[in-house]
Design goal:
heterodimer; A: Serine Threonine Protein Phosphatase 5, Tetratricopeptide repeat; globular; B: alpha/beta; Rossmann fold; Hypothetical Protein Tm841, Chain: A,domain 3; 2 domains; six-stranded mixed beta sheet; about 35% helix
């Protein structure tokens, strides 16, 4: 179960994470991409932050949509359409819901990752966001299926996300700018998979704080 | 980092302001957007919109004007513009005959332009797009994102722009753009890396004795890093790969572009061009028209790229057609 306040808190925590890890994500991107992932994500979530105050009387659907639209219009690069589409799809999945049940949270993540797959035309194993997001969602589903709390489920999800990030070090990039490196991309962790792992970390912290 | 900037956050914005102040007879800025459009909207033709991250000046705003683009969208430095910006450009330039988007082959550019096209189509605007991918340094295979769009994109602006000016349909303009894309090949080399202002440090490291062959226009790695060589040897390396890919026959005609990466003196570009001409002459390939200068730069990178465009009569006519833009006049 996630209330509107918890969804807002999750967004707020992620805003802080993108500011905190701006340099780290940028450095990771400099190694195999074009060196701006942290800069772009931070710009986008700073814009989200400026809108947070106006979200107070909005529904969960509207909040997630507003986050998505803000990202689409401020991040640029590939991350803007990818993260933006994910939030927009998650928003659509929350239509008419005052609060999200655990199954609704899973649905929102499922729709979000579906949006990323649609927009990016990538699959697992291509050294992208998906390599942390897909295993994280699987881990979350498994925990919830076993009757665990949302906090535990998101702890498991975050763990799986970081394992996914580690996995990206072992594979060749075949999507995005890192693909130009071919085998030289091995050994480097994917910046997008990393920013996505922080998203699960933010969701976990929001759930912990709510005692869910 | 030593640059003529005021605030890293305002580089793109202040640059666009400066362009409009310098060239009001050529371009207008759509208020509130990072979009440059022709000072006088041309009606009765297909409109061309291109764009991409900033840092490649004069691309793409410098090619807005008669015979080339109708609108150019400037993203943050080396970052694709966002869909709302591209959508605004499409709406502004559409004159009822449709809009051709000229997109360079980068994941971000493709996604953002695609989202913009979806928005435009939902409003009933006819949109088509072409993706330029002229960089032979990248292997085009199932296992890569494909070749990068680099300086050859300017030939697409020029020739598709000229075609649009004749009143051709969107399909015809798209077809000629595809023909250019099929016949244009580029490869670049970097001597010194470039620095994105917001990053504050060079995007990669290159010692004083080294060069990166096959460099991308955002400093993406190339084919190999080698000790610095003489200009002619460097041209030989680049041309060998371009010619292998293009395989022009004796008697073929080409357009040549020797493009500076931003911090390369014209003097050196001409020295490179000298060897390009020699090699083509040896192969019996005729140089129809040569362009030397900064067309698609990479901020302050020292480096250059060589582009060849294989021509037929139709492309030759359109290449020579009138163009009047900030950065290219014919």
């Amino acid at each position: 179960m996630a209330t509107k306040a918890e969804v807002l808190n999750f967004v707020r925590i992620y805003v802080d994470k993108m500011a905190e890890h701006r340099q780290e994500l940028t450095d990771l991107d400099q190694a195999i991409g074009d060196g701006d992932h942290g800069i772009n994500m931070n710009r986008g979530f700073k814009a989200v932050d400026e809108k947070l105050l106006t979200f107070a009387d909005k529904t969960i659907e509207e909040i997630l949509n507003a986050v998505g639209m803000t990202l689409v219009s401020t991040v640029g690069g590939a991350s803007g359409p990818l993260y933006g589409t994910a939030f927009l799809r998650a928003g659509a999945s929350a239509k008419g819901k005052e609060a999200l049940s655990d199954q609704d949270v899973i649905l929102a993540f499922d729709e979000g990752v579906g949006g990323i797959q649609y927009r990016g035309k990538a699959v697992k194993g291509e050294k992208t966001i998906l390599d942390s997001m897909l295993p994280a969602i699987d881990a979350m589903k498994k925990s919830i299926g076993e009757g665990k709390s949302m906090t535990v489920a998101l702890e498991e999800a975050e763990k799986a996300a970081w394992a996914g990030v580690e996995y990206t070090k072992t594979i060749i990039a075949t999507k995005g700018r890192a693909s130009y490196l071919g085998e030289r991309s091995i050994g480097h962790q994917d910046p997008g998979a990393t920013s996505m792992a922080y998203l699960f970390q933010a969701a976990k912290e929001a759930a912990q704080k709510a005692g869910k | 980092m030593k640059k003529f900037i005021n605030d890293v956050e305002n580089v793109e914005n202040e640059m666009l302001e400066g362009i409009v102040l310098a060239h009001p007879e050529y371009v207008n800025r759509i208020p509130g957007f990072d979009v440059l459009v022709r000072a006088e909207k041309k009606v009765g033709k297909v409109a061309l919109v291109s764009g991409g991250g900033s840092g490649h000046e004069p691309a793409h705003g410098g090619f807005v004007g008669k015979g080339m683009l109708d609108g150019a969208v400037a993203g943050a430095i080396f970052t694709s513009p966002t869909p709302d910006q591209v959508f605004e450009a499409i709406k502004a330039v559409d004159a009822g005959k449709g809009v051709l988007l000229v997109v360079k082959n980068y994941t971000g550019d493709i996604m953002n332009f695609e989202m913009a096209a979806e928005l435009a189509e939902a409003e009933g605007i006819k949109v088509a797009n072409v993706v330029t991918n002229d960089d032979v340094a990248v292997e085009d295979s199932l296992y890569t994102t494909g070749r990068r769009g680099v300086a050859g994109t300017i030939f697409v602006h020029k020739i598709a722009g000229a075609k649009a000016e004749t009143g051709a349909s969107l399909e015809e303009v798209q077809a000629i753009a595809e023909k250019v894309i099929a016949n244009v090949r580029t490869m670049g080399v970097a001597l010194k890396p470039c620095t994105v202002p917001a990053a504050g440090k060079p995007g990669f490291e290159l010692s004083d004795e080294e060069m990166e062959l096959g460099i991308g226009i955002h400093g993406e790695p190339g084919i190999e890093r080698k000790p610095m060589q003489k200009a002619d040897e460097i041209v030989d390396y680049l041309m060998a790969r371009i010619l292998k890919d293009m395989n022009p026959q004796s008697g073929d005609e080409v357009a040549v572009m020797v493009n500076g990466a931003g911090a390369t003196p014209p003097m050196e570009l001409y020295i490179l061009n000298r060897r390009v001409s020699q090699i083509l002459a040896e192969k019996g390939v005729k140089v129809f028209k040569t362009f030397v200068g900064d067309f698609m730069t990479s901020i302050d990178m020292a480096g250059a790229s060589i582009t060849l465009l294989k021509l037929d009569n139709e492309l030759k006519t359109l290449l020579l057609a009138e163009a009047d833009t900030i950065a290219l006049k014919m």
